[in-house]
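Changelog note: in this version the structure field was regenerated for every chain. One regenerated record is shown below for reference.
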Amino acid sequence: MRVTIDHQPLTGVTPEMLLWWFRHIGDHMTYAGHDISSYLAWHPLDHIHWELDRAAPGGGAGEGARFRIVEAFDRRPEFYVDTTETVEKLDVTGIRLVRRLAGTPVFQLEHTWSACAQGTHYVSVLDLGARSSFLTPVNRYLSTRAFPERMARAWVVHNVEEVGVLEHLLPTLVDDHGARRR
């Protein structure tokens, strides 16, 4: 299964700001007068927990790191996800999180972004399942039990909501932390 979301342009957001965000996703921020995890502020209703399971070779949240992500799409217990993925790409053009089984990707979530006249063009692609007939039973399990179609639809809504929040969250947060806007 492959799901692609071509989001509306993010006004006031640059590719550099998005790179900064994903490198600092585990930091804390002040939100509504409270110290809160940036990850929770990003989607306070669906996000439950984020942690750096393993730092990148150079340290922190970069390529080679492992992110543990806990969330429940649409705030529903049946759409609860607790997963750890490897960051295979994180640069000024996007981020790719991958889960492999016997060296073969069985889950991939890639967010790509680029500057456009309105701000930043942002595309999310969720790719579930292996491209190998050897892993057909795994694909069947993924599409019927682990991530059925109902859950995929809830993920689309979740992703549209969280990406939409970025244009409201990032400009102030980046200014507060002195990150480059370009």
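Spot check on this record: The chain has one domain: 8-177. The chain is about 30% helix and 40% strand.
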